[in-house]
Amino acid sequence: MWTGAVARLRRPLATLALLVATAGAVAQDALTVRLEAPDAVRPLLEQHVRLLREEVRTLPEQAADRVAMTRRARREVAGLLATEGYFAPSVRFDRSDAQNWRLQVDPGPRTEIGAVEILFTGEIATSDPGGESYLELLRAGWRLPVGQPFRQGDWDGAKQALLDAVGAQRYAAARIADSRAEIDPDSAQARLRVRIDSGPPFYLGPLEVSGLEHLPADLVERYSQLKLGAPYDREALLAFQTELQNTPHFSAVIVDIERDPALSASVPVQVQVTEALPRYAGVGAGYSTNTGARVELAYRDSNLRKRGWAFSSGLRLEQRRQALFADVFLPPRGRDRDSFGALAESSDLEGLKIDSQALGATRTTLRGDIETQLALRLQHERIEPDGAAPRSSNTLTANWTWVKRAVNDLLDPTSGYLLEFQLGGGSKAVLSEQDFVRVYSRFARYQPLRGTDVFILRGEAGVTVADSREGVPQDFLFRTGGAQSVRGYDYQSLGVSEGNATVGGRYLATASAEYVRWFAPQWGAAFFVDAGDAADTRDDFDLHVGYGLGARWRSPAGPLAIDLAWGHQARSLRLHFGVAIAF
Length: 583
Known about the structure:
The chain is α+β, with helices and mostly antiparallel strands. It folds into four domains: 23-106, Ubiquitin-like (UB roll) (Roll); 112-197, membrane protein fhac (Ubiquitin-like (UB roll), Roll), CATH 3.10.20.310; 204-275, Ubiquitin-like (UB roll) (Roll); 401-579, membrane protein fhac: a member of the omp85/tpsb transporter family (Porin, Beta Barrel), CATH 2.40.160.50. It has nine helices and 28 strands. The chain has a 16-stranded antiparallel beta sheet, with no helix packed on it. Strands 2-1-4-3 form a four-stranded mixed beta sheet. The chain is elongated and about 105 Å long. The termini are far apart.
C-alpha cells in the first residue's frame, strides 16, 4: 500500500521539476533588444523592424543563427532609412551582454534634392495648345523641388501628381515613360529625372450607357452636359457622374473612358448605372420654435409613367401650419429642368389665418454654383386677420430668382458667401387684382476665424411696389422675426398690425452678426445680434433689436441651433430652435 502511494507522489514531483526546468530554460534563452537612435527615426524603426516588434525574443542557440538574425535586422534598418533619405547609415549591434543587446543606429546625413529634370514627350511636347508655357506650369507644380529632403513616399507621390496633372485634361493615356533617382551618398544629394509620355489627345465620342432596365433609354443623355468632340476633361466626367448619382434614379454610377490611344479621336464615354428602387415612402417628425411640432408623410416615384419623371408628394402637419403638395420634375434638357405642381397650405401665425391653393410651373437652370429659377404661379388666397374683416384674392404671379452659393459646404458652410436676388409681381391685366412688383435680396458671408471658429454676417432687404397691400398675396409681402431672422421675437411677429393680427408689409430690412466658437468637432457656442423690421411704409419702419447666445451641434442635416435671445423692444426672453442654415 505504501509503495503505491510513493509511486503516485513521485509522478507529480517529476512533472513539477520538468516545469521548473523549462521555465529556467526560457528565462535563460530570453533576449532583450534596446534601440539607440535619434528621435527623428526612432518611431519608424520601432514600428517596422521585426526584431524590435517581437514581444518575446528567443536567443538562437547556434552562433550562425544569431549572426543571420543581426544581418536581417541591419538590412531592414538600412532599407527603412533609405525610404526616408538616409543612404549612409551606421548600424551596429552591441552584444557584450549575451541576453541584452543594443541596436545602435546613426542614420547619417539626410539626402536632399540636388537637381530635377522633367521631360515631356508625345503630343503635349509638339502640339499642345498651351505651348511651352503650359509645360513650364506643369514643371512649376512639381512637388519635390531642389533643396527638399528626399523621401521615397514623396518621390512616388510627386511622380503620380505630375502624371495626374497631365492626364486630367486631353491626355487620358499619359504615362510615366521613365523615372530615375540617382543618389550620391558621399554628397547626400539626389538627382531626379522624370519623363512623361502624354500620348495623343483624347476627344469625347458618344455615350455608351449600360445598366438601364426600366428607365427611358435617353434619360442619361438628357442629364449630360458633355459635348461630342470636346477634349477629354476628367473633372467634367466626374461632375457628370456626381450629377447622375444625385438624382433619385440611380443608386450607383460610374462614368469613364477606355484609355486606348487607338480610340483617342472619338473615345466613347462609358456610363454604367444601377437603377435605384423607383418608389419611396417615408415618415418623419420634428420640432421648431417657429411652427411647433411637425409630422410629415412623403411619397416619391422616380419613374412616373415610365418616362423618368420624378414625382414627389407629401403631407406636412405642423402645429401652426399645414401643407399638402405634389410636384413632378421632368428630366433635364441641357442645363434646364422643368417642373410643375400643386400646393394647398393653411397657417395660423400671429393672429393671421391664411388658406391658399396654388398651381405652378418652374424652370430651374444650373450653371456651376449659380442657380436661376423662373416660376409662374396661379393662386387663390383667403386671409382672416383676427379682429379684422376677412378677404380673398386671385393672382397670377411671375417670379425670377438668382442664387449664387460660393461656400465650401452647402449644409455646413464655414467660408464663402451666398447671394440671392428675386424679382417678381403680378398685373391686373393678367388675372391679378392689382399691379405690383416685388424686389428682394439676401446675403450671407461666412468668415473663418481662429482655426474652426466662424463669423457670420447676413442681411436681407425687400420692397413691394404697389398702391397698397390689398390684393397682394402674403408671399409677395414681408413679415419677419423668429429663428433665422430677428431672434428675440416670435416667428413673423414683426410686420403690419391689422386688427389683432400681424400681416405682411411692403418693406423689409434685417441684419445679423454672429460668432460661432467650435470648442469640439460636434459642439459649439454662438453669440449674436439681430436687427430688423417689416412695415407698410418707410415712415412706419422701426428697427427691432435682439441679441443673445446659443448652442450648436453638427448633425447630418446641418448645424442644429438652440438660441436664447433677448428682444430689446419686446423686453422678453425667447428660446429659438432650428437648423442653423441661412438658405
